[in-house]
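Morning run. Coffee first, then this:
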Amino acid sequence: MQQVQSMANQQQQQVPPQVITTKDCMYLKDELSWELLAMKKCSELAKQCTDPEIRQAIDKVGHVHQQHYMRILNHLQTNNELAMQQATGSQTQTIQNPTPANQQPPKTPEMNDRDRLNDVLTMEKYLTDSFNAAVREASHPALHQDQLAILNETHQCQYELFELMFRKGFYKMEAEQQPKLDQAFQQFSEYKSQFPYATQTPTSLQ
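And here it is:
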């Protein structure tokens, strides 16, 4: 009975569950390291500035990175065990929708629908890289805003294609083990002692 319920819940997953995967956890830890270094660097460089306006601008960027750190850290508090129980009816680490037998992609030398979908997904990923470079180099205000909007829309296209692959059962993920999440949260929580700024909301750079 429990197995039947688990499969029923699994079939109802239209979007990926609110679970931190092993890949997510790897990126989260990298991002926290990047943000910690960025805020410390901004603080040190600001102190060396002789122009008050430049010092203030760099310090504001440092505050933003410190705020980013806290937002990212919160994701390591995810209760994966509970999320997996709610999503699949079990605490299995594997996250994948079942693919009906009549919808299995043929394993032949020719491209199938899964290949075509994956190809477009990969194209969208490459496009986000290209538009990201264009956005950060744009000097014209209106051009910058348009390219930023296009970048966000391309990211949305990519994610919608990923969700479709997940719904079709073409994408498998592994949930991170709860002890590893807890360990990472504890580790990076202790790093808050290295924060160069008092915890507060940064003001706008504008």
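The chain has two domains: 1-96+175-196, 109-171. Good start to the day.
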